[in-house]
From TrEMBL:
It comes from the Bacteria. Residues 46-135 form the Methyltransferase domain. InterPro entries: Methyltransf_25, SAM-dependent_MTases_sf. It comes from Rhizobium setariae. This is Class I SAM-dependent methyltransferase. GO terms for biological process: methylation. Keywords: Methyltransferase, Transferase. One of its GO terms (molecular function) is methyltransferase activity.
Amino acid sequence: MTDAAQRIIELYETFAAHWDAGRGKTLGEKPWLDRFTDGLQAGAAVLDIGCGSGEPIAAYFTASGFHVTGIDSSAPLIDLCSARFPGHQWHVSDMRKLSLGQRFDGLIAWDSFFHLTYDDQRAMFPIFRDHAAPGARLMFTSGPAHGEAIGSFEGEELYHASLAPEEYRQLLQDNGFAVMAHVAEDPTCGGHTIWLARFGE
């Protein structure tokens, strides 16, 4: 599965337009996004890690009055974000190397973080910490249990991995985050496994 993991960036570069066309624009994630933003002030800074083409999630944040900084490894997807939401910040960046020198009130990695290998996921938690303002929310999706899985995208293998829930909890704790909510395979949100945490005050 290592080869499939190494091809993630290439796939989203090559098939950016196909991904954007196929990405559902209805906001089934809204109840979780509402929980994520509950209590955030108008104009709060949100970091969207693996933002894709900006729709529908970044669109939700911009419409809600937040300032979005989005990063994605696919330049064509970032070009779409820049065209759709010109008043916000968009960067071509590999999340594993993220170092923006800025802290955010909310960090989200929805359907992006789980494309990383086990070790790369572990290494992301200090990166989350270093970009989190006091009291910041962090929300990400994972698998329900430790393991790797291969999906399909435009006929190509699409890599996914997950750590065990116990390890995610420990990594969050070790990096100053407290779990606010966790649901495995949430039937109200397309079967997503979701983590919502708050950074230490």
